[in-house]
Amino acid sequence: MKKILLLLPLLFTISCGNNPSESKDGFDWILGNWIKTNEKEGAETYENWKKDSSTEYIGFSYTMQHKDTVWQENIRLFKTAETWSFDVTGKGEKEPTKFLLTEIENSNFVCENSTNEFPKKIEYSRNGDQLLAKISGDEMEISFDYKKTDE
To answer: In whole angstroms, what is the distance from residue 151 CA to residue 62 CA?
Structure first.
């Protein structure tokens, strides 16, 4: 049993072989200001991404309703050793919810945390001026369709 546990980190590292730090631009395709196009009427949701370094990207997402911020979270996509992490911290939370990058290919990636109640999986992909995000777990799935803004 101990041998299997010792091999798990190695297998995870090998399975994530398309390391974004090895590509020229990493996650640069996520950078910019985005507005959600499939939001409920009366609300506006935004997501903004900036690059802090070649191994750290900072995101901020928030929803406005009647000129009030009704929801917000800070996001951090960063590399430690050979692993990329995706941390989400909601307003008022002291500790982030941590997800590990499990897949990456061109302009999309998947992060997972099977022990989190919801979501268990976070997916991002870019298609032209659209950024598509999806959170899912068990039987539930929520899509966030964004378009690039000039802000």
So the answer is: 15
